[in-house]
């Protein structure tokens, strides 16, 4: 078979010939110099000489290229050498006859160690070379001249920058073995948790789930020593992130809720770690591919997209494998054979199987890189044609803002998230159209124009999102969610200013996108790593912000959210609550200390501890019928969220419709509270004693039912006695829910015509 080095050299020389021909001839054809000009004629003559030399070199290469069967030697000499019994050719015998007589025993001048390539490119097998064997003759004079004056320059190919990895059988077996070991490790972690202490369990999960994938993807691409260093660094970082995530959720108060088996932030931490090491692994593979610390952008682009498609299809393959195994188990169950179903219920079988399947899928996608490259090109072309549509819609939205104002946008309470999503979509589609910058001539003019406009749109969208977040922070301080939004805006600002800089460039089409993307990648790694570490922990920053507002008097001690410190901000909030209990904070230190002590003594049942809210009847309650009014004895400030009452009784933003209805026919009206857009069931309150109102019952299935509320407002209802008697045992009544016609179990059974008919 042909040696890959010679095939690569021959292919690149062909590319060189086409490159020289296309560049030089295109430059002459587009020039304004007339053909009769002497300078142009001299340039054309020089071009013809250069091309003749390149073609002559290729003819010599094709003529001399012969494959030696049964060995690894490639004979690239000028003629076949016939060796005598001493292993010398005719040319070498002539050279020995003309040697200087004073140096008869001196070794041959072109002697090389065994197995090394000589100047002519001939590689002799180890068994056929001795330390005294003479080297092949030097190339002819014409060949030396062509080789010297027409060396291959460094050109950037348009083909994928990712070379075919070493996908030999040992590499595939090593990847499968790593997958099996990963599955066994996860089995021990999930089923034999006593082997792992609670404070290292999350670290073990992150290391066991991500580091083997890094090793599998690196095999065949990166040197073993670099793989070991990279995996060790990744394991150290993941272990630190897991330890901090566990520490911050460890209870710091006596009587607090115990730590769950896994921290509550596990999904978010795992997602951030996947993003961090996806970007980092792409950078490492690109550097190893180009053999330099900072690889070219084309290599970064090709490797990142290849890795993304590999992971996507590997996850799909693993899911399909599990589905196929379950289908096989069901088929065997039909014939009363249950061994496969029992295996599928065993984690000792399922986890190694799925991990090994994922590793094999990664190996298969490495064996066929052309398929991955084709899928990537198809995906990018399809996505690039979405760019004009997205640019038109988002640009129209931006143009409408000066006429509609920003009040409607602030009223949604999620303007920052929506604008960040628009930023992310535009960045993705711009990169899908631009790719690695080498396809600018093949991209449609409409797509190129839309990409340039989209680069400009990023800045106003990011600015509006930043302003929206600043308003929320100025009014209510920092919270964990707002800190995550600020981190996303920081990365979005890199893209916004960088892409605007690229759009204003009058050179190549968005040629400055490449350095901006690389800078944003490093910025994303730094920001996400800081969020998962004590350096920029969202809970720590949020607690400090809320305490500062309390100390400055921006928020009164009565309205301060002590539950946020006790249960929502983990260890940082618990420590702050203990400091507030000491009574050394702000001018209202005594009141703050009393409130903090109450919060600490309140049992943490998982529900929110807040101060009592005073209901404003005029603003929050609409009493029906119109002539009715709220009884003076109804309390407005004794309700808590722990009572599971409508939001209007516990929050200033809640609204309720109140209906005065005599449910028990005692001559006194009960009050039916129905929250506006609330998921709490309508609640009936009764006055059990003078001035003491309690909950009488709830109407299940009628929450957020506008048809039910409208019929009550119109008076289109009647009160009927129960048709059946109920069972009472030991003073407790067993509820009987009637079935069939005449019973409304849900809001969907109401209609404009017949209340008993379904939709």
Automatic annotation (TrEMBL):
Q: Which residues form a coiled coil?
A: none
Q: Where is this region: Disordered?
A: 14-40, 72-154
Q: Does the keyword Hydrolase apply?
A: no
- Can you tell me where the transmembrane regions are? 172-190, 196-215, 227-247, 259-286, 307-328, 348-365, 377-404, 416-434, 446-471, 483-504, 516-536
Q: What are the Basic residues biased-composition ranges?
A: 139-153
Q: Where is the composition biased (Basic and acidic residues)?
A: 75-92, 102-114
Alphabetic keyword roster: Membrane, Transmembrane, Transmembrane helix
Kindly name one Pfam family recorded for this protein: DUF4153
* Entry-linked InterPro entries: DUF4153
The answer to keyword GTP-binding applying to this record is no
Q: What is this protein called?
A: DUF4153 domain-containing protein
